[in-house]
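[job 0412] stage=fold_complex status=start
inputs:
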Amino acid sequence: AQTVTQSQPEMSVQEAETVTLSCTYDTSESDYYLFWYKQPPSRQMILVIRQEAYKQQNATENRFSVNFQKAAKSFSLKISDSQLGDAAMYFCAIDGLTFGKGTHLIIQP
Amino acid sequence: DTGVSQDPRHKITKRGQNVTFRCDPISEHNRLYWYRQTLGQGPEFLTYFQNEAQLEKSRLLSDRFSAERPKGSFSTLEIQRTEQGDSAMYLCASSFPGTSGYEQFFGPGTRLTVL
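[job 0412] stage=fold_complex status=done
writing structure:
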């Protein structure tokens, strides 16, 4: 069985600062995908960034980047230059079927 | 808007009643997923379809739950004899397998309240 653990129920960051959200996972698969999804209040969940486990290079999407440590089964999300619109619940997921409990990100103006 | 729609958006029912939810995925997506999300939790996988075939069901999907995807297009999720513990947001997502992994596009969800 796959598991995903997000140990930070809530994080707060000043606008324009950088924040890192943690995620650890467990799987017996050797090939898998990892995802970070964003769920704004009362809005649909959308993909932020994805990482293929066989790729060593960390994925980046504009202000969003990941630190993927396969041996440690760690997949953290870094948000640079935080913006008010980044405020949301962030979910880490493996293979799109198993999600963590989420981290509530608060952006302070 | 991700292109995935769900109907209804809200449903209030009395305990013991049956309810049915509908999900319309993005038309070219062959995979469709159902999740349940309770307050403060991440989505919990219920089941998924590839075209019209139901390929996997979670242990969470008791015999009161049934899902269908006739003709591999829209899908319905029915809950029979609802219980208060069924109160949750029911999310639908669709995906198309490709080189970028199974990125899922989520619908807005159906919020179920069982009184």
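[job 0412] summary: Chain B touches chain A at residues 1-2, 4, 33, 35, 40-45, 48, 91, 93, 95, 100-109 (CB under 8 Å).
[job 0412] exit 0
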